[in-house]
Design brief:
The protein is α+β, with helices and mostly antiparallel strands. It has eight helices and ten strands.
Length: 262
């Protein structure tokens, strides 16, 4: 229930002119109308539809500079809010159970200097894939056991069967559920056990994000939310799904997720 902007009281009367009257301080105020993400942009409806169509096709904002659809700040803000809506939708998923594959990787272009997990400018991402199903991506500050186990605790259910590589940070998973360690020889799994699902997804994600020419670290969670949403709805037509999502999701819902730090 909406509260009075003057005194914060929650109870009020509805007036004939559409306003409300606070029962405590008797002040009159207009109720706040929650605006959808779609209605935030004061551009033509046809322009918004074209921008969303380009976004669904994976066309970056900088490639639309000669189309005359909208200014650069408007295009970038539109794409950013669409990504925020997709990331918010992915954030609401239930924790995974059953057969789960775990792995971690880095995103970012070639950088001079130190290589590997400590390379400058790289974004470390932990991935959780439900076998033959959905994926969840979690940016982490450091590749440590504490960071990884915390993400596993938040996004998987106890009793799951975990497939991982030989990294020692996963050793404690046997306490939480089943744990299968996939051992490799010359880059190929030994035996029938594998984590090909999550490794294949990394290839898909990096190929899709390559066209954006890098992603800002403070917005990495939005790009990762976009690519995971696309993968999780890979068997569906995306345009009507996302169009409906933007029309029913409010700006207040996505504001907390717009800028995050790992």
């Amino acid at each position: 229930m909406e509260k009075c902007p003057s005194c914060g009281h929650a109870r009020s009367w509805h007036l004939a002119d559409g306003r409300r009257k606070c029962r405590r301080c008797r002040s009159r105020y207009k109720p706040c109308r929650l605006r959808s993400v779609w209605s935030l942009f004061r551009i033509k409806e046809a322009t918004k539809v074209k921008l969303l169509d380009y976004f669904m096709l994976g066309v970056p904002s900088y490639r639309l500079r000669f189309h005359g659809l909208a200014s650069r700040p408007t295009r970038e803000r539109f794409f950013r809010l669409v990504r925020a809506a997709l990331a918010h939708e992915e954030h609401l998923r239930e924790p995974f159970d059953g057969l789960v594959e775990l792995d971690e990787t880095t995103f970012g272009g070639h950088r001079p200097g130190k290589r590997g997990w400590g390379a400058y400018g790289k974004i470390i991402v932990f991935g959780i894939l439900k076998r033959n199903g959905l994926v969840r991506l979690c940016p982490v500050a450091r590749r440590t056991q504490k960071e990884v186990i915390e993400q596993i605790r938040l996004h998987t259910k106890p009793g799951s069967l975990y497939y991982t590589d030989q990294w020692k940070a996963y050793a404690s998973l046997a306490i939480r559920g089943g744990h299968v360690v996939v051992r490799k020889e010359r880059g190929k799994p030994k035996g029938k056990d594998h984590i090909n699902g999550i490794e294949g997804f990394w290839s898909y994600a990096k190929h899709w994000l390559y066209m954006y020419r890098g992603m800002p670290a403070k917005l990495a969670h939005l790009y990762l939310g976009e690519v995971s949403y696309r993968f999780n709805h890979r068997e569906e037509v995306l345009f009507p799904l996302v169009h409906g999502l933007l029309q029913r999701m409010t700006a207040e819902q996505i504001n907390p997720i717009l800028v995050q730090t790992v």
